[in-house]
């Protein structure tokens, strides 16, 4: 199985971001959610990447990454139904052009959690016309920008969108409704499939997938009920959606962060961590081996895999370095076991707006001072660069 052009490097070494988390946006459903005081703090100007992208791209170059995953902000591109903003499209075009000059392969995400206000006002993706709306946007993007990008993620983490917005209700639209959540899952499958087909119709050699949020679920104890619950949770949260879109993925995108524990008494609410485990600042267990278990399960699909996100919220950068190295080692092990992992995108390039948690969590290889907007490469960034340089033509990868 091959991913991409013969001229592409054997492994995509990247970093990832999303528009709302770095650009400084005032146009979408999250902006309104923030203004309503539903989050730790509003995103405001964020990293002001919308203005500072040229120097940020120089930092990408300094990192020596050969790929960059970022998202297009639908609410900028189509601020009103059917009205496209030439300036916004022009800027994204300039960004893609610059990446080309820098020989950095873009991986473009079309939807990363945010919706234009006019879409969310009408019920978001649940509106009967939502697929048509999304496809209108995707078609326009492909005609305006498609010549500059070959790799696409249609939707970032569909199940996270559903769980956070429609079950736990910590994200917009802040609803609790099981039936609605189930409907939305099916709708997001349809949206993805339609987007897949639209992209291919405009550009037949594009490679399209989506980014699945996969958690390493394990039973809390070895008891039969806990093991049973682990199977159920794994199926519903990890496997089911991958299966649902199996015929519309050129690669499987995996966002991996942590392990959680299934306990029969908790039902579909796994326990986040064990007290004795090493944890990130968000309380997420650091567990590189969980990635290997997930990758082994994905092998049945016989598709190339991209690790579309992996990273840690921490103020202790030496912990970040260890986290990065350990996860990369696991990827090398997986490749040696015949699992076709073709790329790795560290989350995140820059410190950024971590949704409901605001700016306290620090995920960046690049530290951002939000007062002055100055950026600094953290030591982990330099370590990442050394690993990339040592692996330029290598597959499987190794961590020197
Ligand atoms: C999301 C990112 C988020 C990251 C860390 C992923 O689920 O795609 O937007 O910042 O996790 O929480």
TrEMBL record:
Alphabetical list of InterPro entries matching this protein: GH (IPR017853), Glyco_hydro_1 (IPR001360), Glyco_hydro_1_AS (IPR018120)
GO biological process, one term: carbohydrate metabolic process
UniProt name for this protein: Glycosyl transferase
Species per Swiss-Prot/TrEMBL record: Sulfobacillus acidophilus
Keywords: Glycosidase, Hydrolase, Transferase
PANTHER family linked to this entry: GALACTOLIPID GALACTOSYLTRANSFERASE SFR2, CHLOROPLASTIC, GLYCOSYL HYDROLASE
MF terms (GO), sorted A to Z: beta-glucosidase activity; transferase activity
Family note: Belongs to the glycosyl hydrolase 1 family.
Active site: 309 (nucleophile)
Highest taxon, organism lineage: Bacteria
Pfam families on file: Glyco_hydro_1 (PF00232)
SUPFAM superfamilies for this protein: (Trans)glycosidases
């Amino acid at each position: 199985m091959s991913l991409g052009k013969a001229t592409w490097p054997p492994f995509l070494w990247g970093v990832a971001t999303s528009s709302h988390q770095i650009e400084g946006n005032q146009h979408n459903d999250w902006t309104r959610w923030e203004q309503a005081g539903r989050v730790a703090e509003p995103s405001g100007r964020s990293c002001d990447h919308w203005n500072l992208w040229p120097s940020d791209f120089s930092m990408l170059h300094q990192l020596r990454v050969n790929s960059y995953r970022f998202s297009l902000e639908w609410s900028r591109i189509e601020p009103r139904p059917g009205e496209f903003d030439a300036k916004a499209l022009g800027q994204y075009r300039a960004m893609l052009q610059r990446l080309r000059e820098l020989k950095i392969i873009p991986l473009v995400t079309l939807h990363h959690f945010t919706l234009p206000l006019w879409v969310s006002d009408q019920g978001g993706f649940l509106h009967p016309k939502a697929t048509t709306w999304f496809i209108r946007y995707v078609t326009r993007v492909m005609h305006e920008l498609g010549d500059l990008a070959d790799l696409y993620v249609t939707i970032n983490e569909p199940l996270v969108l559903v769980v956070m917005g429609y079950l736990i209700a910590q994200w917009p639209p802040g609803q609790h409704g099981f039936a609605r959540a189930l409907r939305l899952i099916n709708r997001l499958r349809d949206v993805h499939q339609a987007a897949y087909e639209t992209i291919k119709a405009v550009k037949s050699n594009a490679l399209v997938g989506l980014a699945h949020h996969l958690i390493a679920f394990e039973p809390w104890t070895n008891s039969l009920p806990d093991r049973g619950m682990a199977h159920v949770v794994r199926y519903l949260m990890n496997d089911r959606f991958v299966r649902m879109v199996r015929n519309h993925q050129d690669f499987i995108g995996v966002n991996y962060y942590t392990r959680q524990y299934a306990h029969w008494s908790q039902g579909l609410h796994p326990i986040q961590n064990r007290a004795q485990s090493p944890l990130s600042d968000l309380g997420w267990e650091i567990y590189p081996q969980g990635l290997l278990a997930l990758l082994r399960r994905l092998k049945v699909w016989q598709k190339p895999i991209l690790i579309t996100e992996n990273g840690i919220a921490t103020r202790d950068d030496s912990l970040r370095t260890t986290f990065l190295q350990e996860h990369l080692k696991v990827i090398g092990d997986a490749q040696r076991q015949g699992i076709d992992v073709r790329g790795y995108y560290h989350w995140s390039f820059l410190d950024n707006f971590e949704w409901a948690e605001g700016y306290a969590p620090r995920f960046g290889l690049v530290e951002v001072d939000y007062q002055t907007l100055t950026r600094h490469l953290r030591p982990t960034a330099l370590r990442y660069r050394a690993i990339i340089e040592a692996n330029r033509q290598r597959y499987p990868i190794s961590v020197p």
